[in-house]
């Protein structure tokens, strides 16, 4: 009998003896919510019908059906009472809700079924590893498997009688308050499974490594897979291989030539990743460039995008990434008034850039089937100080692709040596601050009189070595006139874009969906996601979309196509 079969047999024997104590019918809350203002609900981004959602958990494909699990509060639009929500799809765009996969039902998860991952065992049998919070507030690692493998929708899951599989104790000296979020497991050449759990010790971020022969008995490795001093708690770690010669994704256990690995950790409301080499014999991961390690280098997104989780999509050989996009409100009672909180970003295909040191990200191609009524503009010139409306598009729910270029870069401003934080530069030099080459880009979710708008734009600077530096910004300072202004987080975000404007055009793709703006610069080299809440001046039929140039030099638009987006079926 194989290890996968033994996992199922042990669980099913437990059921036959003890009944279905781990499987309960989901009881909807009877709590009455104030009538929500739905103008900020999205049309094609995933969100449950109501209440709170945060981390994505264990996305996978099984029997041709996509499964998406997520941290969910089934009783309120605030954090708490966390279970695993569950929805299914045939196309990653339209989603059907299923009963929650994991409910708080046992002593080891009574205070919450926290984040985790799915792994496909031999024969494609799925298993969930997740963090439970016990009565003592200790975080422990647990296993669940489907009750019926013949059910493509996997509507019932059974918790292992061996839970908790891993728990803090006096021997391992693990901090039980910071021990969570097991990764998808991978099968090493020695035939044993490996997985990582996020942890911190004395302020140092750690990816604790565990080994198992049977997926039940896990032994902590002497050394972590990866760690970094003074980097804080590493939540929601992710570890996966990427090809150095192809844009195709790789199955999580892939190793060998032409393969690098990516280690990602979520910390300080940001998802950082680093590219490096995994040694399966020594069980260590070494970043290619220590200056690009966790917290120092690349981010999946330079705006709101957190606790992400990727999976290998076997039917099309893609690695696909999900990420949580939280609300930008400081008054949390507003979530209860609306009756919901939290979105998922559009799933992104990710692959290794030809440079080998960073990932590229792009919205999955399936989302393009929602496009309709394209507006195509020929090559045009944006004169200094100009603003031009893009008409004929549903500006509340749209997808825009465009490219910019400048015939000369003589008017590029100087990049100061002490400018080390792109976000601060974007905050100082926002869309309303006139520049040399830029700011130029898009004004989205804008009112007709320009009292409200969110700006996504580029600026080009000249470096000390006569090189050119491209700054990409998302400026929310004028996004809403709602009062009090302190109720809303209108942070400006920024990133440096690794593009040579002498040789390459500056591409920008922006997805707009009522209260979320996702932007991809440089064909996916930098991504910035924002949440904004315009007033009635710029919602529904009052929303406008503009291109603008607030620089002192003209720029060319070599490509501009804008589509209105249909509404996805997300029940």
TrEMBL record:
One annotated GO molecular function: hydrolase activity, hydrolyzing O-glycosyl compounds
Signal peptide: none
GO biological process, one term: carbohydrate metabolic process
Membrane-crossing segments per the record: none
InterPro entries: ConA-like_dom_sf (IPR013320), Fructan_Metab_Enzymes (IPR050551), Glyco_hydro_32 (IPR001362), Glyco_hydro_32_AS (IPR018053), Glyco_hydro_32_C (IPR013189), Glyco_hydro_32_N (IPR013148), Glyco_hydro_beta-prop_sf (IPR023296)
Segments forming a coiled coil: none
Glycosyl hydrolase family 32 N-terminal domain location: 45-363
Hydrolase recorded as keyword: yes
Family designation: Belongs to the glycosyl hydrolase 32 family.
Protein name per Swiss-Prot or TrEMBL: Cell wall invertase
Protein species of origin: Solanum tuberosum
């Amino acid at each position: 009998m194989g290890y996968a079969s033994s996992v199922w047999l042990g669980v099913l024997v437990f059921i036959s003896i003890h009944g279905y104590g781990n499987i309960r019918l989901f009881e909807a809350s009877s709590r009455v919510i104030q009538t929500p203002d739905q103008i900020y609900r999205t049309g094609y981004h995933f969100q449950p019908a109501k209440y709170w959602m945060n981390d994505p958990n264990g996305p996978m494909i099984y029997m041709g059906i996509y499964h998406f699990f997520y941290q969910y509060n089934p009783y309120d639009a605030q954090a708490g009472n966390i279970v695993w929500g569950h929805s299914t799809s045939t196309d990653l765009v339209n989603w059907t809700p299923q009963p929650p996969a994991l409910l708080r039902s046992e002593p080891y998860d009574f205070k919450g079924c926290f984040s985790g991952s799915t792994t496909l065992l031999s024969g494609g049998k799925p298993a969930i590893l997740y963090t439970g919070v016990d009565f003592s507030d200790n975080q422990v690692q647990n296993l669940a498997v489907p009750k019926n493998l013949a059910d493509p929708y996997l509507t019932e899951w059974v918790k292992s009688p061996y839970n908790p599989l891993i728990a803090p104790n006096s021997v391992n000296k693990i901090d039980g308050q910071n021990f969570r979020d097991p990764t998808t497991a991978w099968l090493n050449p020695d035939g044993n499974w490996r997985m990582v759990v996020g942890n911190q010790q004395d302020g140092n971020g750690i990816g604790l490594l565990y080994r198992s022969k049977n997926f039940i008995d896990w032994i902590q490795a002497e050394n972590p897979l990866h760690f970094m001093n003074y980097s804080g708690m590493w939540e929601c770690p992710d570890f996966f291989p990427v090809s150095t010669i192809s844009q195709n994704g790789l199955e999580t256990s892939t190793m060998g030539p032409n393969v690098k690995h990516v280690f990602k950790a979520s910390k300080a409301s940001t998802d950082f990743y680093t590219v490096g080499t995994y040694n399966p014999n020594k069980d260590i991961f070494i970043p290619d460039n220590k200056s690009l390690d966790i917290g120092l280098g690349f981010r999946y997104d330079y705006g709101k995008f957190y606790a992400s989780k990727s999976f290998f999509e076997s039917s099309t050989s893609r690695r696909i990434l999900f990420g949580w996009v939280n609300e930008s409100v400081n008054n949390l009672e507003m979530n209860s008034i609306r009756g919901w909180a939290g979105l998922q970003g559009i799933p992104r295909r990710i692959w290794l850039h030809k440079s080998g040191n960073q990932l590229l990200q792009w919205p999955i191609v399936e989302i393009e089937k929602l496009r309709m009524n394209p507006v195509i503009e020929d090559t045009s010139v944006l004169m200094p100080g100009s603003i031009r409306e893009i008409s004929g598009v549903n500006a509340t729910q749209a997808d825009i692709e465009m490219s910019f270029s400048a015939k000369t870069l003589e008017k590029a401003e100087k990049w100061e040596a002490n400018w080390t934080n792109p976000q601060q530069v974007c905050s100082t030099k926002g869309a309303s601050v006139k520049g040399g080459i830029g700011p130029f880009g898009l004004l989205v979710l804008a009112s007709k009189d320009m009292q409200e708008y969110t700006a996504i734009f580029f600026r080009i600077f000249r470096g000390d070595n006569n090189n050119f530096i491209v700054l990409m910004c998302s400026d929310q300072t004028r996004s809403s006139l709602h009062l009090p202004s302190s109720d809303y987080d209108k942070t400006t975000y920024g990133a440096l874009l690794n593009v040579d404007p002498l040789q390459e055009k500056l591409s920008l793709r922006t997805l707009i969906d009522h209260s979320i703006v996702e932007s991809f610069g440089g064909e996916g080299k930098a991504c910035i996601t924002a949440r904004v809440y315009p007033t009635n001046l710029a919602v529904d039929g009052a929303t406008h979309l503009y291109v603008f140039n607030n620089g002192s030099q003209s720029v060319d638009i070599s490509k501009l196509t804008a589509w209105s987006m249909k509404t996805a079926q997300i029940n």
